[in-house]
Amino acid sequence: MAFNVTRRRFLQSASLAAVSIPLSKVVSAETSFTPSPLEAKGTLNEEKVAGGICEMCFWRCQLVGKKRDGRLIKLEGNPKSIDNGTSICARGNAGIKLLYDPDRLKYPLKNVGERGKPVWKKISWDEALKECSTRLKTVVDKYGPQGIAVFPHGSSAKYPMHFFERTVGTHNVSEASFYQCRGIRDMAYVATTGKPPGEKVDMPNAKAILLVGSHIGENVHVSHVKAYIKGLQRGAKLIVVDPRYSAAAAKSDIWVKIKPGTDTAFLLAIMNYLVKNEKYDVDFIDEHGEGFDEFKAGISEWTLEKAAKECELDPKQIQEVADLLADSAPSVSIHPGRHVSWYGNDFQRQRSLACLTGLLGAYYSKGGWVPGKGPKVGGVSWAKHDHGLEHNLNYNEDEEAKYPLHPPGTPTELIRDAALTGKPYPIKGCVMWGQNPIQTIPGPDKMKDVLKQMDFVMCVDVMPTDATMYADILLPEVSYLERYDLVKTGTQWDFSEKQQQYIAARFPLVEPMFERKDQIFITNAIAEGMGYKDAIPVKTVEEMVDKNLKVAGLSLDQLKKEDGIHLQDGKDPYTMPEDFEVLFYNEDVEDLGFPGVPTYIPVDQVPGGYARLLYGRVPVHTFNRTQNNTWLHQAMPENPVWVNDQVAAKLGLKEGDQVGFINSEGAKSRTTTSVKVTPGMRKDCVYMAHGYGSANPLMTVGVDAGVDDQSLITKISVDPETGAHGMRNNFVKLIKDGKVLDIPA
Ligand SMILES: Nc1nc2c(c(=O)[nH]1)N[C@H]1C(S)=C(S)[C@@H](COP(=O)(O)OP(=O)(O)OC[C@H]3O[C@@H](n4cnc5c(=O)[nH]c(N)nc54)[C@H](O)[C@@H]3O)O[C@H]1N2
Ligand SMILES: Nc1nc2c(c(=O)[nH]1)N[C@H]1C(S)=C(S)[C@@H](COP(=O)(O)OP(=O)(O)OC[C@H]3O[C@@H](n4cnc5c(=O)[nH]c(N)nc54)[C@H](O)[C@@H]3O)O[C@H]1N2
Ligand code: SF4
Ligand SMILES: [Mo]
Predict the structure, then answer these.
(1) Are residues 160 and 305 in the same domain?
(2) Containing domain of residue 24, as a range?
(3) Of 463, 476, 550, 474, which Cα lies nearest the Cα of 519?
(4) Which end of the chain has fewer surrounding CB within 10 Å, N or C?
């Protein structure tokens, strides 16, 4: 595989950027559509409506809704779905509580107070849109398009993001999904196999499953959990590498209680052992491996003993894992991970996972990694323009990148530093759309300073959050249950029986309430006000979806007839493309100044008296976005901090004690949470669920509940290859009854 690291090539080869279809090639929409494709009226004025797509998280399970007198009373999985089927998770169920949340944004609001201490005044859409377009245009006129920064996330944020990026022409776009989540993973696999991996590992057919961090069960994506459980039911051995006794560790055959930040050393030792003992797939390497000799030499120092010392493990356990993997090969599901923004040394760990998969011959194998892409559909959006690299913060005059292996967009830290220093140019306009950068990005105080120095901040959200407090204009969007927008494609989760693909479109299940509007209405009005009327690609969201479906020979009308989901025959996932290669050594990566063979880079050690702060998911919440949801709040109102039982005993802490935190840089938590005393946690770290402790009093349920992990993540690490964040190099002490407790060594 040619691995050419120019920006443009990357975007193409990685197929990370949305597909853009020339407008001339797509047929225009004929009609506008109404929701409710399945009309099965019962006695109580009840009806069932199909075609919903969940967005309580980003897995996007397909839904049906039950309505009574026009009100949605229950959500279920769409029986036609070959993805989630009839199942949805607790958060999916609780979507109704988001829909009807009395705290939801209802009208356009103008902040007549300060940023951070807002005083809201209800204004008309006309006034709100005029103010957004005039003030954003003023920023562009004064500072150039690069003076605007965009923090987008979610299905409705693509269209406005493309407007600012492609039409207005700013590079300063930073998506949470890339720079705080999976961007590193995608780029590391691109550098190894030529494509981002997705999460389609054939767990139902695996003989062994290896999870490094990925805490499936607490991290809930319905079809993924089903695949995992089916694999375990059929006898797959489970290896879980996690410093904490996670839900996955509790199901494991081997729990590797690793020292945080040392996973790459662990993986290198496994690979070195497999190579030295000729327990790897020689045929696969001969046919599909590149740079194997350099790789072999590069990792040869990593004996089991050396890694065991570094990772604080028993060398016998590392060998046991390696042998189990080798004995199960090639039916080994090595999960590529998803949130991999851990320590700022993460590209190398992700490269290691990709190489280990190759060493075991577990690409395109039954039970191994398989391609999970669905059929091709359109990606109608604003037309692409080449805006050059002149104002791209990541590139110098010679078009050399600081973070050459970056995912699409600009590394968040470069945007924030430019905004705060005004160098190389000021950034004075900000658009937040479906992202809460204050609780999502490390260094929340830095983010607040970035927002405070702006000339204008607009925010489009569904709820009041910590981020909305910093907006000048706050616009209410219709939720995923009230709008069209998304075409989701994929394959079935279990390939055991047959191979099928699906195309699902999001239909609204209910009419929008209050004055909420969708992304096309809002973006187009702002575009028109800024003078870009002629560039507008579609007039309505229905038109956009219809055009995207046309590429697959479908239409909204047709999908409505098919209950929101079109099924078709799929491809054999086990046929490996002839030109498939695994780059064990990547010369291009080395030419860019990084290790070409996966390499372990140690992270900062825990200073005396502190514990490393780790975080993760709970099954009943999604980040901060569900904090105000009454059902989910009742299920888990705060995020208890996991403390090792021996450490707790020495500190005199009991289960349920309320504690606060202070980190090694002096940042204190605003709120407290309870202690969970457990042997299932290493002594040198503590753990809490991410996404609690919101500060916005307009969130009447979620405000001040639990502790915001991000408020304690102030030391910022950046992955040198990709520019994405690492978040687990922060160290905390506990505070009880006003007394700071030193963590014993
Ligand atoms: N319920 C629920 N499910 C979700 C989400 C949600 O918000 N709620 N969000 C979704 C999204 S967008 C994502 S990206 C995924 C994220 O879910 P994952 O990709 O699984 O996230 P991780 O950060 O890998 O997992 C956290 C785990 O890593 C462990 N860990 C911490 N440090 C280390 C270390 O140094 N080494 C190792 N081996 N493990 C370590 C923690 O103890 C914890 O068990 O979840 C998805 N699913
Ligand atoms: N400390 C720490 N930081 C993390 C993580 C972590 O585990 N720990 N996880 C990282 C990961 S994996 C991810 S993916 C990111 C997620 O980061 P974000 O995407 O920022 O997280 P959310 O809280 O899900 O959503 C942000 C906002 O979207 C709003 N929203 C919900 N639905 C809609 C909608 O339909 N339209 C609009 N306009 N807005 C909507 C919510 O109300 C919320 O304010 O966070 C990352 N940051
Ligand atoms: S996993 Fe749960 S929250 Fe995520 S899309 Fe599916 S049902 Fe919704
Ligand atoms: Mo994520």
Answers:
(1) no
(2) 7-99
(3) 476
(4) C
